[in-house]
Automatic annotation (TrEMBL):
Family matches, as Gene3D superfamilies: Bira Bifunctional Protein, Domain 2
Name this protein carries in UniProt: Amino acid--[acyl-carrier-protein] ligase
Record keyword Ligase present: yes
Bilayer-crossing regions: none
GO molecular function, one term: ligase activity
Top-level lineage group: Bacteria
Chain ranges of the Aminoacyl-transfer RNA synthetases class-II family profile domain: 162-307
Keyword annotations of the record: Ligase
Length: 320
């Protein structure tokens, strides 16, 4: 398999090589020190006790930091119905990251053909049929179909954590195919959505800094697919729709990595899901997302793989 990594396509070959080496070094350390377990597919890892200990502490600290939102807790499975996925329009923006579930629906004969192909060492998944299920790429997706047509005065705010799958195999331990984000999602008026996005940024930054991480908040430039995607990306930057909390995991010479984000969707989901506010206008939405594995791995990269040796400040911030 060819592994493409959009962030390494740079004209400075030396810099790209140095970045690849830095990524391989961190990945090697996490595996050698027993933090992650290589599952044999890029961006897919098993996790050990030390990883889980830090990961759970990160998630708990994120939740504590947003307690004042009094958000409604919702949890979803790692797959979503195709119909719900459709309405998010994700396939228009990120077809290269999307992934669907397939199942076997054939008869005995087809099963024999499958087994024969398998016997010959050929790919047998082509015998499976697409099911009407997609792997969830962003954990807030299922909520928009659940809130009903009208959002009450003051809007609604949700606490959602779950699995995300994105088909972006990489040897960068910060870029996984299967990961988790903890999102705090608000659906309300244009003003309340913007207040949610903007109002949470300083606290998120302070929280991540309290973990001993160097943080910059920068406008995001998502890799929307294709030529139309370039327009969407320009629009995202020009309208300052999304901000990322980035930290220089691989040192000052390389682009910093996003470990969290704060995203204003404007009327995107309100329009697709037919959501309105009490005054009859299309609802707006915004979400803030903590990338739980990325924060955890950034901590191991910055402070070493033994949390018992982290400074007391960092351990206190994480209640470790
Ligand atoms: P990137 O620009 O690095 O691809 P993103 O803009 O696609 O990140 P979001 O869609 O904003 O990320 O997702 C919210 C958070 O989820 C990110 O800030 C990041 O911490 C985390 N995240 C995104 N993609 C991955 C991934 N492939 N592996 C691990 N964590 C991820
Ligand atoms: Zn979201
Ligand atoms: Mg991405």
């Amino acid at each position: 398999m060819t592994i493409t990594d959009p962030t390494t396509t740079t004209t400075e070959g030396d810099s790209a090589a140095a970045l690849a080496a830095a990524r391989a070094d961190l990945r090697g350390r996490l595996l050698a020190d027993g933090v992650l377990i290589d599952l044999g597919s890029p961006g897919l890892y098993g996790r050990t006790g030390v990883f889980e200990r830090v990961y759970a502490a990160v998630d708990a600290a994120a939740v504590r930091s947003q307690a004042d939102l009094d958000a409604e807790v919702l949890r979803f499975p790692p797959v979503e119905p195709l119909a719900a996925f459709e309405r998010t329009d994700y396939i228009a923006s990120f077809p290269d990251l999307a992934a669907s579930i397939s199942g076997f629906t054939g008869d005995d004969r087809t099963h024999r053909a499958l087994l024969a192909a398998r016997e010959r060492g050929e790919r047998w998944e082509t015998f499976l049929q697409p099911a009407d299920l997609m792997l969830t790429p962003a954990v807030c997706h299922p909520v928009y179909g659940l809130v009903g047509d009208t959002v009450p005065e003051g809007g609604r705010t949700f606490d959602i954590v779950g699995d995300s799958f994105r088909r972006e195999p990489s040897l960068d331990p910060m870029r996984l195919q299967a990961f988790h984000m903890h999102e705090f999602v608000h659906i309300g008026t244009p003003a309340s959505a913007k207040t949610h996005r903007d109002g949470r940024i300083p606290g998120m930054r302070a929280l991540l800094e309290s973990f001993g991480l160097a943080i910059e908040v920068v406008p995001a430039n998502d890799p929307f697919f294709g030529r139309v995607g370039q327009m969407l990306a320009r629009n995202q930057v020009e309208q300052a729709l999304k901000f990322e909390f980035v930290t220089p995991v691989y040192g000052p010479d390389h682009d910093a990595t996003a470990i969290s984000s704060a995203n204003l969707h404007e009327d995107h989901f309100g329009t697709s899901f037919g959501l309105r506010t009490a005054d009859g206008a299309v609802a707006h939405s915004a979400c803030i997302a903590f990338g739980l594995e990325r924060i955890t791995i950034a901590l191991f990269a910055a402070h070493g793989t033994d949390p018992d040796r982290w400074t007391s400040d960092v351990r206190a911030a994480l209640a470790l």
